[in-house]
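The pair is listed for reference:
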Amino acid sequence: MGTQQPPPSVYNGDNMNNNNTLDEKSAKQKAIDDWLPINSSRSRKWWFSAFHNVTAMVGAGVLSLPYALSELGWGPGVFILVFSWIITLYTLWQMVEMHEIVPGKRFDRYHELGQYAFGEKLGLYIVVPQQLIVEVSLCIVYMVTGGQSLKKFHDTVCSSCKSIKLTYFIMIFASVEFVLSHLPNFDSISGVSLAAAVMSVSYSTIAWSASLAKGVQEDVQYGYKATTTPGTVFGFLSGLGDVAFAYSGHNVVLEIQATIQSTPERPSKGPMWKGVVVAYIIIALCYFPVALIGYWMFGNSVKDNILISLEKPAWLIAMANMFVVVHVIGSYQVYAMPVFDMMETLLVKKLDFNPSRTLRFIVRNTYVAFTMFIGITFPFFGGLLGFFGGLAYAPTTYYLPCVIWLIVMKPRRYSLSWWINWGLTMGTESPHKKLEDNNNTLTPSTVDEDILKKQKEIDDWLPITSSRNAKWWYAAFHNVTAMVGAGVLSLPYAMSHLGWGPGVVILILSWLITLYTLWQMVEMHEMVPGKRFDRYHELGQHAFGEKLGLYIVVPQQLICEVGVDIVYMVTGGKSLEKIHSLVAPHKHIKTSYFIMIFASVHFILAHLPNFNSISGVSLAAAVMSLTYSTIAWTASVHKGVQSDVEYGYKASTATGTVFNFLTALGDVAFAYAGHNVVLEIQATIPSTPEKPSKGPMWRGVVIAYIVVALCYFPVALIGYYMFGNNVEDNILISLEKPTWLIVAANMFVVIHVIGSYQLYAMPVFDMIETVLVKKMHFRPTRTLRFIVRNFYVAATMFVAITFPFFGGLLGFFGGFAFAPTTYFLPCIMWLAIYKPKKFSLSWCTNWICIILGLLLMTLSPIGGLWNIIINAKDYHFYS
């Protein structure tokens, strides 16, 4: 009889229901889109884009451009000023062109264009963090600037009145933003933005015309004001950043273009580009006269705010400061709008909140309160932004549009467009991306046995995978060599900045956290049956995806490994110099020559092919680290507690105490940063399904961590106990005598850093040789290895000789790489791969480590930056 089919009406009813459901979803989605700030209104004309762009681009920083020119000098300063204007106009044109590159679709947000270019996930990871850094930090800076300008206005108008704290002026400024932040979208802030644009032109005009009226000063000088070479160089770099980042308005350009109406016949790029050109003409009329006339009149004695140099007439300065206030009110709103959009999109689309006025009221008030709190807490935030912001301003403004253009538009190779974009990008594409593409093609389904055999021969030649016969004790001394650095001798000094309680807690907590994250990496080495993750970035690719894994891990790993090698090059040279000064004190030889002597050893040892071949060097280094650590604490015990010992904080100010604490926090935490080579070490151990490598590797790690504890804890605690806050930054300096013991300890340091250099260099050799052989198809020969490794040693030697103070710089730059790769990146990988149950012990432990690691990554570079500022006067190139 068969199965009876339902009547057609049933099908039609189902289809109608489905269609109704789809229509309801579409209507709901459209209602949400119409409610969100960025795309709720599309009726604006070209002149709206003009003043929005002026408001976004011209900041109160225009008043510091003469000071930037004083750091750069006439020639470089004018060139950078003009060149930045041209480059950013070009990249802005690119973004305007790409707004509607896909027919029928508009990329209304920067991250949407990023997702189209790089993929859904990678696009978000690349664009959103950088965009948020720029927009949120600028809102904080504008909060501080508004408060400072109000205070300046008050002090000028009422100089005899009682002084009022800056905090209250920031709160007054914030009260305006609490009201204006409830304007729903870009259209509704048009009046505020127009007023801000007019004010920016007004106070810029006041600045250059008043300078012109004041005339060229009698004692004007145009030479560099710094008295030392490092001071001149750092001043130049600071001025370079001030000029370059003055053009960082690209973070809101697509959001501004989203407000302009568009049809297939008249796309939005026409009126948008017209507005951009007008805006850039206005920007030139603001920037160039202020910068050039201000510097011409005052020379290198110009203040970091040109209004301070002008001083009089008081009414004009007061007016200019009030114009600044009105301008930053509008600029705050322009930069806050995309942030409001991100938060409201997340809450409404992802978390299914109702798009209501109450939601908007809570979100925006919370944001304004947050930026006000940060502004009040860190009124010097603008100084920090000059560094941290550089990590986001430069990419989003100068070369990320070029990278996206190359991916999306695919200009013909060696065409004018191709050359311009690659020139601006400066070779930012990672070679490992190419390697990844190459590896993706090398699968058994697409290659024959000859190619697989050739692939195996290459793997057997590469440093990391060429030998797998190491025992557990190899892992032990390799890890000791990687973990224990000459920095152990500075741990008592770090304790003097931390104090007993926090110091001991941080010392032990770092030991426990890093042992835990190291255990995670050992466990994950063979988590996929039949596959070994022999390199850190391979594990990253498994956790985050082929592309994203490379982008996350490789840069951080290279910063750590190359940075440490340069530091060891300097440390080895300085230890040799210390030995020479103790043995032959009457004959002075420059540090550069001792670094070259130290490097000469590596020109030989660098040609040992793999990890197993450097085992002897690594063992000697591990023994030496234990030896000089023992000398340090036993000699301290022998010297005894000093009669004038004190354990209080040595800084005389609260600011100094806080920054010293952050510096020491980094010193202690980064003493455990040996995770960058742990998978590469484990790759040398044999493994079978019955006896996986994690057994002997973990055994070696436990032994290594016991040795690490025997090195770190006695040196740190006994050294601080004996000398208190008078301890030197190297405990051997505090010991002084006997001379023979100090000489021996320094020689042990030299032997140790010889081994450590090789250990950290081996993964770098592997990366370089992998790219050359697998992607660029060089033959795996001794000649290739000879050239590559000699070049690497020469490069690290050259940087060490040029920057013998590199260790001080690494305390800052390294913070961005050491903390993630050691403290929380393994935890993130663990959560991504194993997916432990929410609120289970494993889940909670990993999230605690991630939070502590993020705090460390954020706070320790601040201390490192402070340390650079304090010690910059003592930095000398080629010393």
Remarks:
- Residues 120-157 form the longest helix (38 residues).
- Residues 511 and 672 are 7 Å apart (CA to CA).
- The two ends are 99 Å apart (CA to CA).
